[in-house]
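quick q for whoever's on today - can somebody do inverse folding on this one?? i tried earlier but teh output was garbage lol. C-alpha cells:
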C-alpha cells in the first residue's frame, strides 16, 4: 500500500472508489479501498472500452431492450464489485465493504412529466427490487423531494440506503430524519446502516461563478466548510441512537475542478473520519504523492472565514441552482448509456 494512502486511512478515513471498473477495483483494493459506488457515467465508460461486449452480446440475444440492458449491466458490475468487497463487509461486521447501486436517474427527468408522488412510488419499488438478496449493496436515492419521500418506507423495509445529491444541510437533515423514522419501524437495528453523500467540489464551482465577491481566503472553502458542518451534525445526531453500525457521511465529488488546486485538496481537508468516495485519478494522485495525512475533518476554517461565507453565500439560492444542475447531470448519463447500448447493438448484432 502507498504510504500516503496508508496515512490517510490511519486518520480514520474509509477509502471508497468512485468506480466499479474491474481493473480499477483491483488497483484500489491494493490501495486499501473498502467500498465503491456506481452510476450510469461509470457504466458507460466501461461499455465504451469494449470489455463488456461478450456480456452485451448475451443480453442482446435474450431480446431485451436497451434500457433493460443498461440495468442488467449495472447489476452485473455492481455484483462483481460486491463480491470483491464481501470479505471486508464480513470482517467489519457490516460496517464497510459496500457498493452503491444508483436507482433510475430518469425518474427525475422533467421530460417524462412524472409527479413527485409517481417518482416516489417508483423509487420505493426499484429500491426494494435492486436491493433484494444483497448483503453489501447500498441503494442510492437522490435528495430530491421525491427521493426523500421514499426514504422512510425504504428504510422501514430494511433497504440499506445511500442518500446522494446532497448539497446543503437542509437536504441532509430531511434525508437523515426520514431514514431514522423508517429505521425505528424495524424489529431490530443490528443491521441498520445508512450513509449520506454530500457533494463538495460542485459547491466551489458554484461560488466561483455566482459569489465572486468572496475573498481569496474564503473562495474555495465553502464546500469544505459545508461538509464539515454536516459531518459534525451527523456525529451529534447519531451518538445517542441505539445502532450497532456507524451511520456515516460520504464525502463525494472530491475530484478537484479548479486546475490551480492540488488533486488531493478535499482528501486532505476531510481526512479523519467517515467515507471518502474518490475518483480513480484522485486516489492514484494521492498514492503517488509523498504526503502524510493528519486528522482535519473536525478542524473548521478560522472564524473570520466562516463569518464571511455565512454573510455572502445565499444558501437557498445555492441549493436551487445546484439541484437544478444536479438533476440535469443526474439524468443525462443514463440517456447517454442507453444511446451507447443502441450503438453497440448495431455494431455487435449488425
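ok took a stab at it. sequence:
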Amino acid at each position: 500500500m502507498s504510504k500516503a494512502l496508508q496515512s490517510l486511512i490511519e486518520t480514520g478515513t474509509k477509502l471508497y472508489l468512485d468506480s466499479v471498473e474491474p481493473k480499477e477495483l483491483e488497483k484500489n483494493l491494493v490501495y486499501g479501498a473498502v467500498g465503491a459506488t456506481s452510476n450510469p457515467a461509470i457504466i458507460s465508460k466501461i461499455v465504451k472500452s469494449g470489455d463488456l461486449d461478450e456480456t452485451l452480446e448475451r443480453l442482446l440475444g435474450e431480446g431485451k431492450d436497451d434500457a433493460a440492458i443498461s440495468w442488467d449491466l449495472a447489476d452485473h458490475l455492481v455484483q462483481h464489485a460486491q463480491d470483491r468487497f464481501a470479505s471486508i463487509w464480513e470482517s467489519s461486521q457490516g460496517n464497510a465493504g459496500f457498493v452503491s447501486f444508483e436507482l433510475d436517474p430518469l425518474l427525475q427527468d422533467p421530460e417524462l412529466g412524472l409527479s413527485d408522488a409517481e417518482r416516489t412510488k417508483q423509487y420505493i419499488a426499484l429500491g426494494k427490487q435492486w436491493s433484494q438478496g444483497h448483503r453489501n449493496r447500498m441503494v442510492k436515492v437522490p435528495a430530491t423531494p421525491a427521493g426523500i419521500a421514499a426514504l422512510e418506507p425504504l428504510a422501514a423495509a430494511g433497504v440499506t440506503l445511500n442518500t446522494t445529491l446532497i448539497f446543503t444541510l437542509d437536504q441532509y437533515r430531511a434525508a437523515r430524519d426520514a431514514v431514522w423514522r423508517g429505521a425505528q419501524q424495524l424489529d431490530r437495528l443490528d443491521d441498520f446502516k445508512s450513509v449520506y453523500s454530500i457533494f463538495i467540489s460542485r459547491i466551489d464551482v458554484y461560488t466561483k461563478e455566482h459569489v465572486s465577491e468572496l475573498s481569496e481566503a474564503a473562495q474555495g472553502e465553502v464546500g469544505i466548510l459545508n461538509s464539515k458542518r454536516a459531518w459534525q451534525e451527523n456525529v451529534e445526531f447519531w451518538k445517542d441512537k441505539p445502532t450497532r453500525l456507524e451511520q456515516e457521511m460520504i464525502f463525494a465529488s472530491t475530484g478537484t475542478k479548479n486546475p490551480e488546486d492540488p488533486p488531493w485538496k478535499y482528501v486532505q481537508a476531510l481526512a479523519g473520519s467517515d467515507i471518502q468516495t474518490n475518483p480513480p485519478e484522485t486516489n492514484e494522485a494521492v498514492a503517488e504523492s509523498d504526503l502524510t495525512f493528519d486528522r482535519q475533518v473536525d478542524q473548521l476554517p478560522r472564524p473570520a472565514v466562516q463569518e464571511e461565507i455565512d454573510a455572502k453565500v445565499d444558501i437557498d439560492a445555492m441549493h436551487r441552482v445546484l439541484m437544478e444542475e444536479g438533476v440535469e447531470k443526474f439524468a443525462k448519463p443514463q440517456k447517454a448509456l442507453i444511446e451507447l447500448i443502441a450503438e453497440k447493438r448495431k455494431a455487435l448484432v449488425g
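fwiw The mean pLDDT is 96. also The chain has one domain: 3-349. so keep that in mind when u check it
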